[in-house]
């Protein structure tokens, strides 16, 4: 509890009541309790911060930050007291999706130099910088934290992850080894370590992973991480049957922990296509230039978006926002003000023609353009694959934006997704039938968008990229209005930009073709996927 002055027992009780309401999700009651608390004790810093959290829960971000500003004012000359409030402030910006706003707060003089910061503050600062895609600065912060606690497994893990994001793969592996030596139950560290490089017969962790899997009462989360790790290492060693056996076990265990119904996603996608045809989506009076700063890369995950992202960033004109959910949030926020009165089950679809799509686009551009400006770039990439769901709204809200649809062989795509352990996204990915069914629905929706916005969509094929990157890169640069220079061919994999995606290790080397048709190694085992795709009329050979 952060205090300006020692509160009375009565104030402590009032604070506890407000906090219990908040933790129970009763935000209105929590708000009333917090307001009463602050009216009686306006100089209670912890009360201000709790009220800010309540307001964030209610979606009132500016009001939340106003409370934090008042909390900061209670510590005009106390740098140590101000630090957690700055971090709290940055968190509200991140919750709102405003990464530029968060980065502005994280540059406060109160949070520098890092040598003066407590280890706990450094850890939280590094985490927030990572969420803002500021990987180089995050690495600097995590290294500083580790220097203060060199034998703390959590600090070792954080520093390893930051080094992985920045391409320092040998350093990352050494740090993961140290973390696991101190805490053999850091299950995620096993998977991250296996992903760092191609394992060899002389240097791998197969025996260690198998030994861990033999432990009694292994929790599900551990079984999933270890099976995915072992699947990756067996694949590297060329033992595809053993790899698939581990992969299937990991997927089955993971699937049991997820509440997912494919039919819901299929219904949403078919509903989008049915409701929004050329007549609705081609209209609007949005300025033709709106969104000209933005380049979208969308499609399915694991199709090469990080490669494409780095290729475009190598121009020197473009920065990457990573995979933000900004457009979807802006769309939902606008829909919530209009769709509820129509009573449908999907608020965005239900809002329909009532959506002020121009306002959605303008709000989106404000956030993304601010990030580009901070990076000194004139353009910015949004490579959230799931933006394909909103492509129609994107095309109408942002007439000036470039939209790249990245495609890959359907079976290679599905296999690559199936063998990737995602933190929380893509719940359809752990069952072959569900994954192929989702893919088929995605292809149907993309055919719809193509029929409506054919001239807006730039089609790029992964196989073409890895076959002749220079030729495809030049065509892509021209389509995006970027100036090509030969140094791009080295810069795309040597540039110092960080990435926290599943491809963090692969993108640090020149383009390769070894992933093309990799699914052929498991032709028989992947039969359920093939059957669904064949039924949908999708060609994958």
From TrEMBL:
TPR repeat ranges, renumbered to this chain = 119-152, 153-186
Q: What Pfam families does this protein map onto?
A: Sulfotransfer_3, TPR_16, TPR_19
Q: Which PROSITE patterns match?
A: TPR
Q: Which UniProt keywords apply?
A: TPR repeat, Transferase
Keyword check for Transferase: yes
Q: Name one GO molecular function term.
A: protein-tyrosine sulfotransferase activity
Q: Which InterPro entries match?
A: P-loop_NTPase, TPR-like_helical_dom_sf, TPR_rpt, TPST-like
Indicate what this protein is called per its UniProt record. Answer: Tetratricopeptide (TPR) repeat protein
Q: Which organism is it from?
A: Microbulbifer hydrolyticus
